[in-house]
Design brief:
single chain; 140 residues; mainly alpha; Hypothetical Protein Yqey, Chain: A, domain1
Length: 140
């Protein structure tokens, strides 16, 4: 899932699709946050190095191994991200804020298109996953 999101993000950046970039970065961040581990208890007072109180001593002393998510867990997280956007879009729609509604719904479609593998031309995600045709602006 992470690989597909990164590939889609690369395409969105190249296409300069800011809505897709935002949604894909958010989905990747949600997966990263889920992989984080509990930092554990704080160091005891007075513990640490000779120069800074409470400092960890040694290279990598503060590093922790991240959780490994299964593909199903990662997909569930991404689906939840899309669901949150849909729920927020409904709230904005009730409040009469069409601009935000459209953006959130598009973000949800972009994220879900990665989950379902719908990154072909004509899918709901639009041009976010494809190189723009012709030369880049300013290079012609």
């Amino acid at each position: 899932m992470r690989t597909r999101l990164r590939l889609a993000l690369t395409g969105a950046i190249k296409a300069r699709d800011t809505i897709a970039v935002s949604a894909l970065r958010s989905a990747l961040s949600a997966i990263g946050n889920a992989e984080a581990v509990d930092p554990g208890p704080a160091a005891a007072a007075g513990a640490g190095g000779p120069y800074v109180a409470g400092a960890a001593v040694g290279v990598g002393a503060t590093e922790a191994r991240r959780r490994s998510l299964s593909p199903a867990e990662a997909e569930q997280i991404v689906r939840a991200e899309a669901g949150e956007r849909e729920r927020a879009a409904r709230e904005y729609e009730r409040a009469g804020r069409a601009g935000q509604t459209g953006r959130l719904r598009r973000e949800a479609r972009v994220v879900m298109s990665v989950v379902t593998g719908g990154d072909r031309p004509g899918d709901a995600a639009g041009p976010a996953f494809h190189e723009p045709s012709g030369p880049a602006p300013g290079l012609a």
